Amino acid sequence: MISNFHYKALPINVYFAEGASKQVKSILADEGYRKVLILTTPEQEKSGLKMVEQLGELSAGVYPHAVMHVPVEVADKAVAYALDHDIDCCLALGGGSTIGLAKAIALKTGLPIAAIPTTYAGSEMTTVYGLTENHVKTTGKDLKVLPKVVIYDPELTLTLPAEISASSGMNAMAHAVEALYAEDKNPIISMMALEAIKSLYQALPQIVAQPQDLAARKQAMYGAWLAGICLGSVGMAIHHKLCHTLGGTFNLPHAQAHAITLAYSAFYNQNTDIPTMDLLAQTLGGQSHEQVGELIYALNQKLGIPMALKDIGLPEDGPAEVARITCAKPYYNPRPYDEQELTRLLTLAYQGLPPA
Fold first, then answer.
1. In this structure, are residues 185 and 238 in contact, taking their beta carbons and an 8 Å threshold?
2. 262 CB-near residues (< 8 Å, 6+ apart)
3. What residue spans define the domains of the chain?
4. Distances in Å between the alpha carbon of 354 and those of 62, 166, 168, 307?
5. Keywords in UniProt for this one (predicted)?
6. Which residues contact 70 (CB under 8 A, 6 or more apart)?
7. CB-based contact 154:117 (threshold 8 Å)
8. Spatial contact of 307 and 300, defined as CB atoms under 8 Å apart
């Protein structure tokens, strides 16, 4: 029996094709933009300069200062720069850090965003933004930060190293997994979530084995797009709260923190909705809800992802502190927050041991 539900569609103009990024000038011109500021991280500044050439007279230059977790001071400088240069669109070229900075600018100025994601982060399909101040990451939702245009070009991910591709793909999978037990879950998003998980589960091992496999890259980007829709359409739960704490408080790398933690947050919730968690296990190659944590852990092993939070920068006292902060200001979760249990699971994650 189908229960009553509410479904919110996302008003984004999406282009998905190999080579789609080569059409960026005509796409943005058709949208009416005439002075486009290209945002990148420092590492992707060269890619930004190439985009300047593509945009020609539409370009207002490159702003290569995006960093992880969008510190408030970085966001404020970017807002001031955008206002001083009288731009009419921010083009975010990169992953979650760059798109996050574009969202910070949009939040303060209302400037529209176009996004060309080069990872599998998924932020481009959401109204979710995040800002970090005094080691605390705060998230919110606002329609102003939803990109107007998203251009998916799998060819742009061919240079993404296999190990980063794997972590980024598992970050996307986390969005889909949480959508299955979100407070406002619905049949449409659950269907998309399972399809996203299936696509990523199939594509990521192939990318690790053959990083230049364009078909696998396209399948992973398809999964990430679906996962982003899931994140943008329903709420977040315990997994995202844990990862926002790991990132905001301890500045852990975003994708790797999501990838490692997912096995433990899924384990924590494995008994909350048994039919749905059974479906999750089956999508991951298992049978029962009781396997979801170990299945994700095994997938991380197969992908060569760092398995221990200590290996990506969490200090020894981190598990208890993350559990404390998480429980002090929790997001919704179908299972009540248990600080002692979370400390135990995070200690296993810190050590890289399987969830149990």
1. no
2. 170, 173, 174, 177, 239, 296
3. 13-157, 162-351
4. 44, 19, 21, 9
5. NAD, Oxidoreductase
6. 97, 100, 101, 103, 104, 129, 130, 131, 132
7. no
8. yes
Question: 37 in helix, strand or coil?
Answer: strand
Q: For residue 323, give both structure tokens.
A: 């559990």
Q: Are strands 128-133 and 136-141 parallel, antiparallel or unpaired?
A: antiparallel
* Strands lying side by side in the sheet with 149-152: 13-16, 149-152, 113-117, 89-94, 36-39, 59-63
Distances (CA, A) of 348 to 149, 310, 314: 41, 10, 12
The domain defined by 162-351 carries CATH number 1.10.3860.10:
no
Top CATH class of 13-157 equals: alpha beta
List, in sequence order, every residue forming a beta bridge with 117; answer none if it has no partner. 94
* Residue 303, burial from CB neighbour count under 10 angstroms (0-12, 13-18, 19+): buried
Give just the sign of the alpha carbon dihedral 158, 163, 166, 171: negative
Nearest to 93 by CA among 134, 29, 50: 50
Distances (CA, A) of 243 to 69, 146, 222, 261: 11, 22, 23, 7
2 band by pLDDT with thresholds 50, 70 and 90: low
Q: Give me 256's structure tokens.
A: 């790797």
pTM attached to this predicted model: 0.93
Tell me 125's DSSP state: G
Residue 184, pLDDT above cutoff 80: yes
The gap from C-alpha 325 to its chain's centroid, in whole angstroms, comes to 21
- Indicate the average pLDDT of the chain: 95
* Residue 229 amino acid letter: I
Closest alpha carbon to 35 in 90, 77, 75:
90
Q: Is 16 helix (H, G, I), strand (E, B) or coil?
A: strand
